[in-house]
């Protein structure tokens, strides 16, 4: 089984976060500010240089108006 950022389910989850951020009209900088993080934090997980942990995933999803459980269910079904 693939692990980490190369797992298809993880990549799908990140793609959903990116699409949700863009659909909400939120820039990486604005999202980072909402999270209290530098813009590079958002950029690095979006391009696959950094893996989000579970708590960070929930924070990101909520910051862009997504339901974390809905997003997880969509990627693990």
Feature tags:
77 residues, mainly alpha, 434 Repressor (Amino-terminal Domain), 5 helices
Report on this structure:
The protein is mostly helical and 77 residues long. 68% of the residues lie in helices and 0% in strands. The protein has one domain: lambda repressor-like DNA-binding domains (434 Repressor (Amino-terminal Domain), Orthogonal Bundle), CATH 1.10.260.40. The chain has helices at 8-23, 28-35, 39-47, 54-63, 68-76. The chain is globular and about 30 Å long. It starts with 7 loop residues before the first helix and ends with a helix. The mean pLDDT is 93.
Structure at a glance:
By secondary structure, the protein is mainly α. The chain has helices at residues 8-23, 28-35, 39-47, 54-63, 68-76. The protein starts with 7 loop residues before the first helix and ends with a helix.
CATH top-level class: Mainly Alpha
H-E order: HHHHH
> Beta-sheet strand percentage?
under 5%
Please bin the fraction of helical residues.
55-70%
Which residues sit in consecutive blocks of at least 5 with pLDDT less than 50?
none
Structural class: mainly alpha
Whole-number total of structural domains? 1
- Number of β-strand runs: 0
CATH topology: the name is: 434 Repressor (Amino-terminal Domain)
Fourth CATH level, the homologous superfamily = lambda repressor-like DNA-binding domains
User: How many helical elements?
Assistant: 5
Biggest sheet overview: none
């Amino acid at each position: 089984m693939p692990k980490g950022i190369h797992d298809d389910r993880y990549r799908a989850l990140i793609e959903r976060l990116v699409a949700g951020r863009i659909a909400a009209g939120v820039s990486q900088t604005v999202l980072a500010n909402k999270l209290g993080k530098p813009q590079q934090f958002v950029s690095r997980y979006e391009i696959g240089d950094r893996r989000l942990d579970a708590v960070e995933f929930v924070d990101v999803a909520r910051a862009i108006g997504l339901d974390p459980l809905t997003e997880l269910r969509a990627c693990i079904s």
